[in-house]
Amino acid sequence: MPSEKSLDDFSNPNQLGTYELWQKVIEETEIEKKAKLVLLDHGDEALAARINLIRSSTKSVRIQTFNWKTDETGRFVLWELLRAVKQRGIQVEILIDQMFGEQDPQMVAFLASFDPNFRIKFYNPTFNQLDPSTIEQLADLAYDFHAFNVRHHNKLFIVDDQLVITGGRNYANRYFDRAIGLNYKDRDVLVVTPDPEAALNSFREYWESDLSVSSRDLEDIRELIEDQDFPSLLTKENFRLNHLFGELAKRASEENYVTDIFIKPMAFVEEIKWVFDSPDKTVQSPESQASVAQELAELVANAKREIFIQSPYVVLSEKAIALFREIKAKNPDLRIVVSTNSLAATDSWTTYAANYKEKRLYLEELGFEMWEFKPMPPDIHKMMAYDALLSRRPTNDEIVNYRRIPFKIDKSLPAFPFNSEASEKTIYRLDRRNDHLRTPPFLSMHAKSMVIDEEVAYVGSFNFDPRSVDYNTEVGLIVRDKAFAEKLRQSIQLIASPANSYRIAIQKGFPVIRTFNRILNRISESLPLIDPWPFRIYSSFRLRQGMEPVLPSSPMFYENWEDVGNFPQLGFFARKKVAARLFKSAAMILKPLL
């Protein structure tokens, strides 16, 4: 990818947003006294929404996030924010978790010195530094294990105190369809509300918390500022955007695009409720501060017909297991659909290992219907901006990081419609690899959502694992509206479908061997700290071509579905596979940290 040449500075060209369009929507919500919502399911569109809202802002942009990587997307959003500050005096406040912020100290020193209207804070910094040494991190961990591990996982994007985005996305290429390699299939919701006080109060509570430290007060950043040891990024060229946002940068200011993609699909909903954990989760009892977990547990407990859960990681705490046992005992016909990642697709093999150990319990005792997402689903071109990733040139970072393919490409993938820049016609393409790097763009599911009885929906930052309950601060939006719940349910079902995910079910096997294996499974599971038995009684199943997706209870299940093993698309000695097996066998004592 050739470098991007541009002498544009922060004052030129002028930012052009669509303020009037959003002001009209705000007025509509004030008249109806109801919020309007739209799902942001595609990374490319989710980024365009943020850029448009920054350009449309008149007063302020406030952002909370877990991770902000200083790659092309991270720098692009910063470039737009800095332009808004210089051109229109917009106040910008950004709160990032320190441990996983992935920030460049010199970039942060530049940002901290840029303008009084641009302020950036870091949550719970170790030894009051942005980039502490490994020894300092270990010392902090030993001093207070709980406080060290509690992290700021909230995702909020608030413009002019009335337009809000929340969901699962952090700030990096992979969250917005910009990586030749791993990308996240994520989900946000854009909210225009006449009553934003709950979200604003939560932001202020975190911003003013003693755990949120100004970048200028971090010791290593203060030293860089005092020594003037940071770059002077004066033009767009200095931000090294590498031609990744040319079309998006244009679309994000076009009224027709904003109207068609965001305004028209927006719909009024009956009721919304913001749910937040307390920033004091680090220093007080997690049980009294984990508001999001409590709210979601209450929704689950009141379900009558079905529960749809989508989470990149599904590892249930003992309390969560007890809750699902209780509701299944009361309502045996309750359908519980769980959509999560396969090992080939996940970005956390440790968390998958814990799920792998407990999968029999989820299937047999809790009655879950489990689906595991494929890294290259047949419908991937519907889920992301796929064409551009197949045809564009790689950046230097991609050449270094994505030359190795981390899984086996499914050779049965069908051809898909491809819009080539060299041809005005749509062609059907089989090849899933980038034309230059010869590495495939692929997906890891990162969305965190739930739908109850097709009436109540949740979108937010909460993963269904112990870390989100006990250690991470979380945020989310509960929506009571049938139409919105149905849209979210359909979005989850696109992923949790026979085409795009593997169905998890009990293996067929021979009766005697299967019984013997089940007994050893149960004995191994019951051991307190280890689970040494390597053979599971369940497996991943792929629907055979042209067959009906019958349920596991059907006598035709094993005829219609092909058993592809516990770790499809991974070789026998794949590192992920070996590591997950070892972790499952001997390291489950670490389950609460996952």
Please, could you describe this protein's structure?
With 594 residues, this protein is α+β, with helices and mostly antiparallel strands. It is built from 22 helices and 25 strands. The strands form 5 sheets. The chain has a 10-stranded mixed sheet with strand order 12-22-20-19-13-14-15-23-24-25, sandwiched between helices. A 9-stranded mixed sheet has the order 10-4-3-2-6-7-9-1-11, sandwiched between helices. The chain has a two-stranded parallel sheet with strand order 5-21. α14 links the parallel β14 and β15 (368-373). It is globular and about 75 Å long. The mean pLDDT is 93.
What's the short version?
With 594 residues, the chain is an alpha+beta fold.
Give the topology, please.
Layout: H1 19-32, E1 36-40, H2 43-56, E2 60-65, H3 72-88, E3 91-97, H4 105-112, E4 118-123, H5 134-143, H6 145-149, E5 151-152, E6 156-159, E7 163-167, E8 182-185, E9 188-192, H7 197-207, E10 212-214, H8 219-226, H9 246-251, H10 255-263, E11 267-268, E12 271-276, H11 286-289, H12 291-301, E13 306-310, H13 318-330, E14 335-341, H14 349-365, E15 368-373, H15 380-383, H16 386-391, H17 396-401, E16 416-419, E17 426-429, E18 442-445, E19 449-452, E20 456-460, H18 466-470, E21 472-473, E22 475-480, H19 482-495, E23 501-506, H20 511-526, E24 538-543, H21 557-560, E25 561-565, H22 575-586
Parallel strand pairs: 2-3, 3-4, 5-21, 8-18, 13-14, 14-15
Antiparallel strand pairs: 1-9, 1-11, 2-6, 4-10, 6-7, 7-9, 12-22, 13-19, 15-23, 16-17, 19-20, 20-22, 23-24, 24-25
Helix pairs in contact: 2-3, 4-8, 14-22
